[in-house]
Amino acid sequence: MNNKHPVLRRGQLTFGQKAADTLTKFAGSWTFILIFLAFLTVWIAFNVLAWINHWDPYPFILLNLVLSCLAAIQAPVILMSQNRITERDRIISEYDYQVNRRAERGIEKIIKEIKLIKRKMK
Q: What is the mean pLDDT of the chain?
């Protein structure tokens, strides 16, 4: 594979690209989901069971704000990472196409030479 293109080399990614990939890798994992479910459960339990000082009484408006902010930040970062992966896949597909075309031309040349040899043998 041709790793000369910057999209294909991990070492030449920008800080934003590396951060998007890292966040996407973590945010799309079961670890994140389980940690986040535990966080939500604790938040709701503390607010429901607290006798005094409910910092976020039902219907948990502050929690809704936190969830909305998380979604607003996470979604574009994940999309950036997916766009970069799509670009990398496009470049790899283009490279594969070029290799296949060269192979096809080589096979056609070999077939022509075999036909020529067959004619000379008759």
A: 83
- DSSP assigned state of 7: T
* pLDDT bracket for residue 8 (50, 70, 90): low
Instruction: Report the alpha-carbon distance of residue 122 to residue 101 in Å, rounded.
Output: 32
* pLDDT for residue 101 is more than 60: yes
- Look up residue 1 and give its amino acid: M
57 residue type, one letter? P
φ, ψ of residue 38 to 5 degrees: the values are -65, -45
**Four-point Cα dihedral 16, 22, 23, 25, nearest 10:** 140
Domain chopping of the chain, boundaries: 10-121
Whole-number Å distance between alpha carbons of 50 and 84: 46
User: What's the CA gap between 93 and 85, in Å, rounded?
Assistant: 12
Q: What residues have CB less than 8 Å from 98, skipping those under 6 apart?
A: none
Closest CA to 90 of 4, 7, 3: 7
